[in-house]
């Protein structure tokens, strides 16, 4: 059985590199995701923040996360395998544009940091 909770990734920052060479850092906090490219990403968005996301635990250590960046027309779906330190992406980037791009790639997670001070989404710290 899977669980679906926004806060599954809250407090985590992951750094990863796709097999094609693009590298990103993604931070999850308070039900929002933010990311930045760690290398020149060309036509792909380099940085964005305050993106509502949702997550589902497929099994312990295997998380499916999705977000929609309405402002730039991106839908990003990540399967994050924390145990194997692998990431799998399926994304439609710039879907409203004529030069939209389908991104379907795997990668290696270099680091996972957990900030235990970050309360789950919808809760406040004490």
Question: Any chance you could write out the topology, listing elements then pairs?
Answer:
Blueprint (H helix, E strand, L loop, with lengths): L2 E2 L7 E7 L4 E7 L2 E6 L9 E13 L2 E8 L4 E8 L4 E8 L7 E14 L12
Key words describing this protein structure:
globular; Lipocalin; 0% helix; 58% strand; 126 residues; eight-stranded antiparallel beta barrel; single chain
What does this structure look like?
The protein is an all-beta fold. It has strands spanning 3-4, 12-18, 23-29, 32-37, 47-59, 62-69, 74-81, 86-93, 101-114. Strands 2-3-4-5-6-7-8-9 form an 8-stranded antiparallel barrel. The model has no long low-confidence stretch (mean pLDDT 87).
Write a short abstract of this structure.
This protein is mainly beta and 126 residues long. It has one domain (3-114): Lipocalin (Beta Barrel), CATH 2.40.128.
């Amino acid at each position: 059985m899977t669980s679906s909770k926004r806060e599954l990734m809250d407090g985590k920052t992951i750094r990863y590199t796709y097999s094609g060479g693009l590298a990103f850092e993604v931070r999850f906090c308070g039900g929002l995701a933010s990311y930045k490219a760690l290398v020149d990403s060309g036509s792909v968005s380099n940085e964005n923040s305050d993106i509502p996301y949702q997550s589902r635990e497929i099994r312990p250590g295997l998380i499916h996360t999705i977000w929609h960046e309405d402002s730039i027309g991106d839908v990003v779906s990540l399967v994050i395998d924390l145990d194997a330190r692998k990431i799998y992406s399926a994304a439609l980037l710039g879907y409203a544009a004529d030069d939209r791009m389908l991104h379907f790639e795997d990668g290696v997670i270099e680091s996972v940091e957990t900030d235990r001070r970050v309360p789950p989404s919808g809760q406040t710290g004490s």
